[in-house]
Amino acid sequence: MGVLNVTPDSFSDGGQWLDPIAAIAHGREMVAAGATIVDVGGESTRPGAVAVAEAEELRRVLSVVEALAEVVQVSIDTRNAAVARAAVAAGATIINDVSAQLWPVAAETGAGWVAMHMPAEPPVMQQHARYDDVVSEVRDHLVERAETARAAGVSEVWIDPGIGFGKLARHNLLLLRHLDTLVATGFPVLIGTSRKSFLGVLAPQGDGTPAATDDRLEATVATSTWAITHGVDVIRVHDVAPAVQAVRLAGEAPAPSFATGGSVR
Ligand code: HH2
Fold this sequence. Notes:
The chain is of the alpha/beta class and 265 residues long. The protein contains eleven helices and eight strands. It has one domain (2-251): Alpha-Beta Barrel (TIM Barrel), CATH 3.20.20.
């Protein structure tokens, strides 16, 4: 899943794809690089982010969703029911819901639904990074939401532990270490570690200072590879080409040279 933030303020690519023409071109580039889903978002949900007005969010995403839906499966990254509904009408087939509350819209529209764990709204979520057992608390919350959605008639449901959403580095690491607990629920799992700040801290620069957002590619690929090899179904990344290589090497996608190449070294 390639990330397409049509926002001025996303934590790693804010402003880069705010112009719809640039956004659509970047979406197409990600498809050419091997993305099978493009995740279009019009609101940053980084820690501390303030909610965007509905009309503005709609203005940012709709033309982009419509154009990209002609060439790839599109998910809409939103917490707003009206935006989700309009994006599905424009061609999106998945609602990527960091609030894990929009299953009624998925049920009503027939879209797939991603339920992500976030313990509180972005402006205050880091104050809620308190868990006795982060792995079982996140799992129980997601399973409850996913089962509710299934019972409401949503046919495709993914669960996502919400790396970095109301979590400290140690919580993110525990969730990564125990992905099998999420996989064992039987719901397909989606995960997004891409460029997130805990990677900068855990894989710092040579002088020990945290790696900047644009210097977290290796850590993103490492954690994404870990996730794929531990049963995760979808990885959400900004840099699609290296992630696709990682997925291929992990044996989860057809890799022609491996499949056919007895003599390939
Ligand atoms: N992370 C972000 C946004 N949406 N959706 C899912 N399902 N899982 C995630 O981990 C996830 C997500 C945050 O990343 P990004 O979109 O790059 O940043 P911002 O929220 O600042 O736009």
